[in-house]
Amino acid sequence: MTDPMPLHKIAMPQINRVSASDHIADALRGAIVDGLIPVGEPLKQDEIAARFQVSKIPVREALKRLEAEGLVTFIQNRGAVVAIMSTEEIGEYLDIRAVLEGKAAELSAPNITPGTLELAADYLDKFRQETSPREWANLNWYFHATLYRDANRPILMTELRTLYNKLERYIRTLLALNHAETPKTHCEHAAILDAFARRDAKAAAELTRSHVLDGGATLIKHLNNHRRIGE
What is the reported pTM? Predict the structure, then answer.
């Protein structure tokens, strides 16, 4: 007999019938990204439904949404389990992210407004002062996404957010690693912000792509070493 899932670690939101699947997806997503539900853990629909006091229908909807985000996979005869990405998959997603973020930077930099620059600088200051990996990830996204918003490309931003969601648990690892090299991280962010302030589209795009790819290389190296040790 298998042990029950660690569902007691998940904070219980107020759920209504209309948005039950949204609440469940948010709660499970947070628990997976935070590492409360480990890789390979079965996500049993009956236990989740009982925990959230709902039927299995919104649970299935929530799990399918998390599958689309790359956090859950369905295995024959086992059902849904917390997914693990190979380093090859992570690397490919990071390559795509570098291309899309570079394009967003290129489109946004010439149109950047003083208000956008001020907000991005504020997020960067908070990022420098923060000590929580969860908040590092949030502030990192807010900083970059704010710089891209003057591109006025909502579909591009939706795709970037989807990519970020797929990679968030690994991005937290990356940011924790990079905080061991905080001067380098801060210098890269400051250089990106400066390129936007100068409305230099080419520099903003190149610096953004390099920032994503260099960080990705650090992450992949760490994951390969970590997984090799764990074998």
Answer: 0.79
Please, are residues 40 and 84 in contact by the beta-carbon 8 Å criterion?
yes
- Locate 224 and state its tokens: 């390969």
How would residue 192 be classed by pLDDT, with cut points 50, 70 and 90?
A: very high
Overall average pLDDT of the 133-152 stretch: 93
Query: Which range in 72-86, 111-125, 154-168 is most confidently predicted, on average pLDDT?
Result: 111-125
Of the candidates 103, 101, 109, the one whose C-alpha atom is nearest the C-alpha of residue 197 is 109
Exposed, middle or buried by CB within 10 Å (0-12, 13-18, 19+), for 1? exposed
Specify the residue for token string 């899932």.
5
Q: Quick one: 55 and 158 in the same domain? A: no
Domain that holds residue 104: 87-230
- Considering the domain architecture, whether residues 78 and 94 belong to the same structural domain is answered as no
Binned at pLDDT 50, 70 and 90, residue 16 comes out as low
Rounded to whole angstroms, how far apart are CA atoms 48 and 25? 11
- CA separation for the pair 111, 196 (Å, rounded): 9
Using the 3D structure, point to which of 34, 61, 82 is the last residue of a domain. 82
**Inside any domain, residue 1:** no
Q: Specify the number of domains making up the chain.
A: 2
The verdict on 206 and 97 lying in the same domain is yes
